[in-house]
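Write out the 3D structure for:
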Amino acid sequence: MPAEGVITLRFLGNILWFVFAGFWLWLGWTLAGLLWCITIVGVPWGVQCFKFARLMCTPFGKDVDFGGGILSFALNIIWLVLSGLPLCIEAVTIGLILCVTVVGIPFGMQCFKYAKLALMPFGASIVRA
C-alpha cells in the first residue's frame, strides 16, 4: 500500500477512535492529571497523565514500550492505588463494549492495550509504530 494510503487509513482510524473511545479515555486521563497536579508532590504523576492523555486522542501509528526500574516500580505502586484502577476499569469497559461488534474489535484491542498502560504508566514510553 502506498504511503499516502497508510496515512489516510491511520487518519481515518484516529478519527473513528476518538469518536467511539478516545474522547472518554482522554477525559479520564486529563482529569486524573488535573487532580494530581493540585499538589506539588503529585506533579510527576500529573505530567505522566497528560502525556498519555495526548496518546488517547490519536493512538494509531504509535505504540507503547514498557520498561523502567525500581523507581518506576515504586511510582507505579502509588499510581495503581490512587488512579490506575479507575482508568484501567474505564478502558476495559469501553473495550468490552467495542468488541461486541466485529468492526469495533480493533478499537477494543486498543482499549485493552491502554488498560495495561493505566496500571503501569511509569517506565512506559510512546514510540512510532
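The mean pLDDT is 89.
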